[in-house]
Amino acid sequence: MTRIPFIEARFFDPHETQRMIEDRFVSHLRRRRVTDLSAPIPDSDEEDEHAPSLPLTLNDCDRRRISRRAKRLLELREAASGLSHLRRDDRERLEVLRDGARLIQIPSEHRADELAAAVHAEMPWMAPVTEIVWQAMRRSVREGWPGLRVPPLLLDGPPGIGKSHFGRKLGEVLSAPTTIIEATGENASFGVVGSQRGWGSTHPGRLITTILERRIANPVMVVDEIDKASSVTSNKGLAFGLPEGLLPLLEPLTARRWSCPYYQVRFDMSWVIWVLTSNDYRLLPAPLLNRCPPLRLQPLTPHDLIRFAQRQARERGLSEGSTDALIDAIESASLPPHRRSLRLVIRLLDRATDLQNAPIRH
Fold it and tell me: Higher-confidence residue: 13 or 242?
């Protein structure tokens, strides 16, 4: 992994006190005054009967000047840090970004081919999406980018076809931190980007929290059913919704210097991998659709369900008999297109796994 500057802030040693700075200034002043003298530099400024030269002794005026300069230096550091408005605990949370954040890289185009093949093998009906990710992986290698950058994805289609599962699988093959956000359960955009003063409560969003926990600048962020997200109103009567809150994060130019509502510090969010899902993209605002052109996905076929079940059964170690029974159950269901769902298959897999691993009763 490579490392990039991630936060627009400067970090100084929090343990360096004013007294420590003063001691350093004292040592420096002594060295300046003794430059043309042959005597050694004493270790302290205490009076010594063998002191070779009067210029090495600091008077009260020297002490006051040093104290003022040390205090001023601390004030300038505070202003230059960009973090002076934060509480100590918030500063400590951001301290992990002192040396920047890491980026997940694709080492070669061959490796990009392997990763794309792994995703396609499990979810072949997602081929239009996998194609975009595959080309993005190859491009990041070909153009020598410091890390993987994928354009924001909006997966639109009927429920149960595995849109959010695709996001999880992508994070798994990339070994990237993955956060799943249920838009229907989030308090507008606050759960994702955080909130600031003027609202009932203030807290950092799950986006910056994910990055702070793993210190990786290109995690996979899955926002499920964004077309069902609701808006809320602040104490001052301002309405705010999740699609609007995401707009600056989906545009590379603004994401590069995104201002966090909670920390009020700028971060480079241009590397985040966004996977948005919806059932009806027509409910989303035009600015979001301009940044994320919807990828319309078709309902699952019985063949898709069976291939998925067979692959999952092998990974779970199900016996041949259990797998055959599972396939029979899927084939006999004769579900209409709108009811074919990976959730149904996963429930059947869970049931088959429990039955196979249940203890034998005597």
Answer: 242
What class, spelled out in words, does domain 102-296 have in CATH?
A: alpha beta
What pLDDT is stored for residue 238 in this prediction? 55
Residue recorded with tokens 């301009």: 290
Angle, helices 127-142/109-122, rounded to nearest 10 degrees? 170
Pick from 190-194, 219-223, 253-257, 284-288: least confident: 190-194
Q: What b/e string do you get for 60-87 counting C-beta neighbours within 10 Å, with b at 16 or more?
A: eeeeeebeeebeebeeebeeebbbeebe
What does residue 109 show for φ and ψ, rounded to 5 degrees?
A: -65, -30
The rounded distance, in Å, linking the Cα atoms of 89 and 86 is 8
Task: List Cα–Cα distances, 173 to 110, 168, 341, in angstroms.
Answer: 14, 9, 23
Strand partners, 273: 220
Confidence category of residue 223, pLDDT binned at 50, 70, 90 = very high
Indicate whether this model's pTM tops 0.85: no
Residue with tokens 């936060």: 7
The region of weakest confidence among 47-56, 213-222, 264-273 is 47-56
The tokens for 174 are: 């990339």
CA distance 116 to 130: 6
Look at residue 199 and tell me whether its pLDDT is greater than 80. no
- The Cα–Cα gap between 8 and 98 comes to 10
* CA separation for the pair 2, 141 (Å, rounded): 13
CA atoms within 13 A on the CB side of 35: 4
Residue spans of alpha helices (H) in 1-106: 18-33, 60-81, 88-94
Distance between CA atoms of residues 135 and 206, nearest Å: 28
